[in-house]
Structure of Notum, palmitoleoyl-protein carboxylesterase:
Amino acid sequence: PEGAGTGQGSRRGVTVLAGTWSLPPTVIWTFLVSLCPSAGTGILSSQPEENPHWWNANMVFIPYCSSDVWSGASSKSEKNEYAFMGALIIQEVIKELVGKGLSTAKVLLLAGSSAGGTGVLLNVDRVAEQLEEMGYQGIQVRGLADSGWFLDNKQYRRTDCIDTITCAPTEAIRRGIRYWNGVVPERCKLQFKEGEEWNCFFGYKIYPTLRCPVFVVQWLFDEAQLTVDNVHLTGQPVQEGQWLYIQNLGRELRNTLKDVTASFAPACLSHEIITRNHWTDIQVKGTSLPRALHCWDRSLHESNRNGKAPLKGCPIHLIDSCPWPHCNPSCPTIRDQFTGQEMNVIQFLMHMGFDVQKMAQQQGLEPSKLLGMLSSGN
């Protein structure tokens, strides 16, 4: 690819997979490939203020135009009107980058958001194996999966599967994997019966089979997850059943991350973060995401060098414990979709129709104390 961005003197590479989880399989978009990091934001930014630890890495952005969660290996044919070749696109990009400096790299970070985050989980080991087979065993391949750790949970309200929005998560993947001729890692595939490879699209099921280190970034109340679960927060007061469902989703998500070595999971209602320019502002237990990633990078470097445990004062397992959406005061700003005005967490909860009195009772607190805690973010 022409115009590959380079950080002078850097022997680290960041390859970012774009993604939109709910893109219907019949919609094919084409993009101009932009590989210049100076135009990026978040982890793709070349500004140290916005991207303090990766600003000078060599960066490549791969647009998402295969609509197959980066898993497809299906070419266009008389029977199949569309090509779904996400897995093959990654292989070809890696081949081309080897001739553009990747061969001298020490670290390759494969990062992705949304469907791209799931794509990281599906492809990180394959990229490592590809480089090993090409004779580049010295390159350490790592993964950064943002907003791609979905749950195969029961929907709040079941609907007929007529598109990717109404389909339950498992059914959408079951259908898609056949349509795309989806490829999953062999180590994960062997954990399930033939025909049940769809399980490998769900982070908590594929993660234990991965060989490469992966850092998982996931909002506890992910908007894409709520959408496929048929919880639509449209500004109308939510019903008690929805509220309990949302709280339970946070608990379920938190439980699936407890054995993930490196994770960052804020209790926010949002989707995607690593390519947002506000990614430095979000904190969990006083640590920002860029700081946590830097700690992870250092811990991997130290463990490779002398087998030491993670560094003291440099946390890499950061999961919010507060139980409601946006109970973390550093969460991205919420705006009233009708007025456009910013809302704080108390205004947001009241706007959604939550009963603060009842919430306080559930937590064994006085309403005034609960409101004070919410205001301070405790």
Summary: The chain has two domains: 12-327, 333-378. Residues 333-378 form one domain.
